Amino acid sequence: MSSVLGTPLRLLLFSALIMLSWVRADFGRAENAAPLPDHVIQQFGHPPAIPAGPLPAHLQAAVRTVFVDSLARSDWTGPQAAALDTIARSKDPRLAWTIADMMRFTWRKAFFEAQARAALRLLEFEPQSLHLQREIMDRLIAWDIPAYPGYLPTKRAIFTQFVEGWDRLFVEGAIDWRLVTWGGVAIDDRPHGTTDTPCNCIPAADNPDVSRAEDAAWLKDHDVVFGIEVNGTYRAYPRRIMEVREMVNDTLGGRDLAIPYCTLCGAAQAYFTDQLPAGVARPVLRTSGLLLRSNKVMYDVNTSSVFDTFAGKAVTGPLATLNLRLERAGVVTTDWGSWKQAHPETTVLVEALALGRDFDFRNGRDGNGPIFPIGDVDPRLPVHEEVIGVVTASGKPVAFQRSTAFAALTSGVEITHETVRLKLDAGGIRAVDAEGSDLGSHQAFWFAWSQFHPETVLWTP
User: Fold this and answer.
1) In the prediction, which pLDDT does 364 show?
2) Residues 6+ positions from 64 with CB-CB distance below 8 Å
3) Please, which residues have CB within 8 angstroms of residue 375's CB and are 6 or more apart in sequence?
4) What is the pLDDT of residues 24-51, one digit of tens each?
5) What does R_g of the chain's alpha carbons equal in angstroms?
6) pLDDT for 255-290, tens place per residue?
7) How many CB atoms neighbour CB 295 within 10 A?
8) What are the residues whose beta carbons fall under 8 Å from the beta carbon of 38, sequence distance 6 or more?
9) For residues 122 and 92, is the Cβ–Cβ distance under 8 A?
10) d(C-alpha 368, C-alpha 17), whole Å
11) Of the chain's two ends, which shows fewer C-beta atoms within 10 Å, N or C?
12) For residue 106, what is the DSSP state?
């Protein structure tokens, strides 16, 4: 495939050429576009007309030629170019989903440019940046353009051509595969207990080594940690390590846990992976290498069941068939100095788990906004505003703006919503119920919390 497709690192280098060569066809705006929120129209404009039903036979053939045959033969020649032109002239914006999928893996300039022109023609908008694949997907998501019948098999054929192991994941389920894109890394498919084995992936850590707080001289007091308490046992997971690992399978306070961290959405979460229904083995969560609206897609390495990262619910595979939802544990985002002062008995992951790396993505990698497609964002808060999110006993998600809540709590103001009460914990914030029991809250960026919980209540003082 190296002659046509390959690493996405060159995508931005070639995308600038589109700006010079693309000429917009004026199709006008659709009269029958479905009603959309005002903030979507303001940011993205009106969507084009969207046909219904299956693709006509000639478009099905064009899709096969462009997105299946070109992969099988590893070439881009006249028949593929003619078929892509047929797609571009179809006025069926549903086909832009597959174009965006292929663009994520395309490096050859001519192929990338042709795909971009086709997608822009189908969606009828003028690009505003060099990040064309992201702009295309942002509009597809914001406009909620439906997928055409047969979309998933084509997407699966594209993605599984490039990363071994994804064939087990791309199956039907309670996940919107339209919104999934590649995060630029391979799947972590190592069995439990083998995470000392190097991999070409974001390497999860199983059963990590820990030390006492007084032995962690490598951590500075201002370093960010994610603090977890289970049955009176405390442990700190330094962000420096979690940015390298993104997933830890651990045991704390006599309970098994999985702790995913999404660097892109600023969220560390914790799920209990024991005390499950009879016959269900402990899920061992791993990073898939896939993203859903800039949120990590995690899966169980044993059953290949994909999980909703923010809900802890299996959405594909055998565990989805069992309707498995994992119980949450609370995560406090704070600094190491405050955590160890409040909980001097805490243990902490050892420095070696950082694999010699010392960086902090929050220092600017996505300082100008998310670097992967997210579509539209609930306009009540800025995209990267930090919130404390929790689900109430009635099942209603609620978000508390962290800065406002922290200021109120330090001033002695009580913050409650239904049965939820916020309290300060070691320089961070934890949600508890009326009896003080942990409710499994965690901190995240607003765009991520509001996407996974579009019906969320936003607390206001």
Assistant:
1) 61
2) none
3) 137, 138, 139, 140, 141, 142, 179, 293, 451
4) 222 233 444 458 999 999 999 999 999 9
5) 23
6) 999 999 999 999 999 999 999 999 999 999 999 999
7) 29
8) none
9) yes
10) 23
11) C
12) B
